[in-house]
Structure formats: C-alpha cells, structure tokens
Write a structure and sequence with these properties.
The complex is a heterodimer of chains A (86) and B (415). Chain A is 47% helix and 0% strand. By secondary structure, chain A is mainly α. The longest helix of chain A has 15 residues. The chains are: A mainly alpha (86), B alpha/beta (415). Chains A and B meet through helix 2 of A and strand 6 of B. The structure holds pyridoxal-5'-phosphate (PLP). Pyridoxal-5'-phosphate binds next to helix 5 of chain B.
Chain lengths: 86, 415
C-alpha cells in the first residue's frame, strides 16, 4: 500500500543529506549507490532516518545496496516493512 | 588443481571488464632513486626516458637525501637487516622505542606506537579502542585505509559531508546517546589538497564530548609553521586525541606508520591492534633513516619553507597560464580536467614532454572531477617548475583548455 508523500520524503532527505550544492537534481529513479551518490557506508543514516520516522526495523539482510539504489526502491522497501507491521 | 579453465576464464573476464572500463592500472618502472629528476621505463620494454617527477609524495625531498641514506647504512651495519619477529615477541629494538619518543615530541602528543604502515595503523586503531556501543563519524572523503579500519570495527559508522561542520554537528547530536563518539578526518585531503577545519572540529568535539582522530599522512613534516602538521596550522596542538601518519611520504618516503595520541589509547593499540600484534614492524634500516629525518626536521624549517615557496610559485604559474585548479594552499595542486579520457590523454602528452604527472578519475575521485594531480617537493628547483610549466602550457594549448572555465571544458570534452 503506497504511503502518502513517502517518495518525496525520501527524495528530500537524500538531497539534503548526500548531495553537494551544485549537483544535478535527483529523480525517483536516479541510481543512488551504483551511481556513486550515496556510498554503501553512508546508507546507514538513511536507514536510521526511515526506521525512526516509520517506526520500523529493517534487518541488515534486507538493507542491501540494491534495495537502497533509488528513491523508488527505498519507498518499496519501507512500504513492505510498514505493511508487515500491520 | 582447483584453478580450472572455467575459473581462469571467469577471472580473465573480470580483468577485461576493468580494462574495458578504462580503469586498468599499469606501473611505470623507475630505474633511478626517487627524486625530482628520474629515469623511467614506460611503456614496459621501452628505453629509459629522463623526466621530471611531479607526482611523488616526496614533499620534503628527503627520499634520497644523502644524510638519510647514510643513516640508513649505519643502521644496517649496527642493527642488522631484519628482526624475524613481531614486536612483542623479539622484534623490538631500542631504536624502535627511540623513534616512538621522537615522533611523540614532534607531534606534541602523549605517546606513539609504530605500525608496519599507516594503512595498518588505520586498519587496526578503531577495532582496538572502540566497541559496538560506540560511533565513528567520518568525513565522506577520508582515505581508503580509514574506511577499511572503520569496516573492521563493530562500532556504528556514520558520515558527514566533506568539511561541512554544520553536518558534523548534526551527526554528533544525532548520536549523542552513544557511549563513545569519534570524529574522523584526514588533515590534508590527498586528492583535493584542502585542509580539514581542525580548530572547528576540536571545538565541536569538546562541546559534544567526542574524540578526534586525524590522518596526517599528507601533512606531517611540512604543514604548519614548523611542519608538525595540520593541528599546528589550525592552532590545536595537544587537542587531537589520535593522530595517524606515515613515514612513507614526506618523512623519508620508505615505509611505516604510527598511531600517536592519548597514552591510554596508544597503550590499547599496543595490547590489541592486530596489524601491530601480527605483522613485523618497520625494519631497522628504515627506522634509522626516519630517525635522521626527525633530526633534520627538528633542527631547521628550511625544507618546509622551500616547499611552501615552491608550491606558491607553481600554483601562481598554473593560474596565470589559465588552468582551472582546486583552491588550496598545500603542495597538492590538482589541475581540473573533469573528463576521464582527457585526464589520461593529458598525462600521456605531458610524459611526451618529459613531465611525469598522473591523471586521476572515477572511482578514485567523484564522477566528472577527473584531474591531473601535481605534487610539489622541496626537491624541486625553480628550473624544474619552469620546465614543467612550459610543458603544461604546451599541452594545455594543444587540448585548447587554457583560459577556459569548467563549463567550457565540460562542453568541449564531456563530463
Ligand atoms: C591519507 C592517507 N593515509 C594513509 C595512507 C597509507 O600510508 P602507508 O603507505 O604508510 O600505508 C596513505 C597513502 O596513500 C594516505 O594518503
């Protein structure tokens, strides 16, 4: 089930947290990790942000670089865990 | 035989992938001692070419200094060649401890522990002093060896935007509940040649009760009025909890590194850091050479002063010629070309002109930030720099980038 405004929340967080001021703007599909915007290390702060905001816990085996590779994919992941919460 | 044809083919495909991506690294063989003037065999098998070296970390020109070489010879004669042991079994000589004391005094810290390399120091330090209840907060552009050390440590890891003190402060607040916090940075960043804001960092660390770790590999020996490093330049000597640095660059350039800082942290490294415990330390001959380097640097600031003048001369020359440089005031002067292929072609054209300088591009630097990184040495004389400038101008003209802005270069050659 889509969460209202989720993609823009993720997009804004990634823009503020990772992008330098003179970078190209992001889209929902911009490759984040494979595109070198977010290194797989810095991903932790995005993960923590989402876990706090949506009161979920994403286990390490699900927090793969692939699952975090675009705003769309991150949104899917969050929605999956929010749905699980019931 | 487990290395079957299939396995070999898979590895060959992987290597080909690296080559196809234009990322294959080929060594250039140098047939002379490291210096401003070197003789190089490149490509492999070709006859020797005399070139000016503009890409060594030989900042102080001590790599082949006659006094250092003589001291190394003497060390070889009096302490032998190898120790055949790690430090804590029977691999520690008096001169190892003597060097640790000299480095402690030079850096203005409490104690020092030698490591086989700074890569090893960085690989071992975090795991030795932190646990899973702690957090490491690093600048996003720190050196690969710090990243590896961070990976080996169970503490949480987070990052802040390069040199962005507001972002670092946010992260210190975010992680305030952690048992221990460590902020991590390079003193001088090796790819851009810019300097960490250690004064601001030290103040933030004080405010939020965090420790501060600085890798001074590209600073020890020449940054600051007496060459102690970035902490001297920023006026925070004594406030850095852990310094890691290398003897493989300005300080003689052979090999070796260290962790220097708070007594208890250094002692914990001695008890627990795996590269210290399980690998032979710096060979006696190298220790003897570095001891001489420390003596030279403590006696006079002549070499770092000359380096500063050379670097300013070089920066001014390139700027007047119309190149786009990364701002800074260190001897690392990146000439920005933005496009990876242009950086490689430019480097080859410089080599034709007798100048050895390397192109750097993704993934070593971010996408569309390809460059030629030049590094100035106290071993350069003005005539070296003038000749190198002529070559840069000639090649710059050939590629028609002189006087062009970043946007114009990108428009011409692509990102
Ligand atoms: C910032 C930094 N730290 C550590 C190292 C590693 O030094 P060493 O050659 O002593 O392992 C380097 C060398 O490339 C470096 O640039």
């Amino acid at each position: 089930m889509p969460i209202e405004g989720l993609k823009d929340i993720v997009l804004n967080y990634v823009t503020k947290e990772y992008l330098e001021d003179d970078s190209e703007p992001l889209t929902y599909d911009t490759p984040l990790i494979s595109g070198g915007i977010v290194d797989s290390f810095s991903m932790v702060s995005l993960k923590r942000f989402l876990e706090n905001k949506y009161a979920i816990s994403i286990p390490d085996e699900d927090a793969t670089p692939e699952a975090f590779d675009s705003v769309n994919k991150v949104a899917d992941l969050v929605e999956r865990f929010v749905a699980k919460k019931g | 035989m487990a290395f079957s044809g299939k396995v070999r083919a898979a590895y060959q495909a992987q290597l080909k992938g690296i080559e196809d991506a234009g990322l294959f690294k080929r060594e250039r063989f140098i047939h002379s001692p490291q210096a401003a003037d070197i003789e190089v065999e490149f490509p492999a098998g070709s006859s020797l070419k005399k070139v000016i070296n503009m890409c060594a970390n030989n900042y102080l020109g001590l790599s082949s200094h006659p006094d250092v070489v003589a001291a190394a010879h003497e060390g070889l004669d009096t302490r032998g060649y190898g120790m055949s042991s790690v430090r804590f079994i029977c691999g520690t000589q008096d001169i190892h401890r003597e060097l640790e004391s000299r480095v402690t005094a030079f850096l203005g810290t409490e104690d020092t522990l030698l490591f086989p390399s700074c890569m090893d120091a960085n690989a071992g330090v975090f795991e030795a002093i932190l646990s899973k209840d702690d957090v490491m907060i690093s600048d996003r552009l720190v050196h690969a060896s710090l990243i590896d050390g961070i990976r080996l440590c169970p503490a949480m890891h987070d990052t802040y935007k390069h040199s962005d003190m507001g972002h670092l402060e946010e992260k210190l607040q975010l992680h305030s509940a952690k048992r221990l916090k460590v902020a991590i940075t390079d003193g001088v960043f090796s790819m851009d040649g810019d300097t960490a804001k250690l004064d601001a960092m030290a103040a933030l660390c004080e405010k939020y009760d965090a420790m501060l770790l600085v890798d001074e590999s590209h600073a020890s020996g020449f940054i600051g009025k007496t060459g102690r490093g970035t902490h001297e330049k920023c006026g925070v000597v004594g406030k850095i909890d852990i310094i890691t640095t290398t003897f493989g660059k300005a300080l003689g350039g052979a090999s070796g590194g260290c962790v220097s800082g708070r007594r208890e942290l250094v002692e914990l490294c001695r008890q627990r850091a795996r590269p210290y415990l399980f690998s032979n330390t710096i060979a006696p001959v190298v220790v003897s050479g570095v001891l001489k380097v420390m003596e030279i640097l403590s006696a006079s600031t002549e070499r770092r002063d000359k380096l500063e003048k050379n670097a300013a001369y070089w920066r001014k020359g390139l700027t007047e010629a119309g190149f786009v440089l990364k701002e800074g005031d260190t001897p690392i002067v990146p000439v920005m070309l933005f496009n990876a292929k242009l950086a490689q072609d430019f480097s080859l054209a410089l080599y034709e002109e007798g100048i050895y300088a390397m192109g750097f591009f993704f993934p070593v630097v971010p996408q569309s930030q390809a460059r030629i990184r030049t590094q100035i040495s106290a071993g350069h004389e003005i005539h070296h720099l003038d000749r190198a400038l002529e070559a840069f101008k000639k090649v710059g003209k050939k590629f028609d980038i002189l006087g062009r802005t970043k946007q114009e270069i990108i428009a011409k050659y692509g990102m």
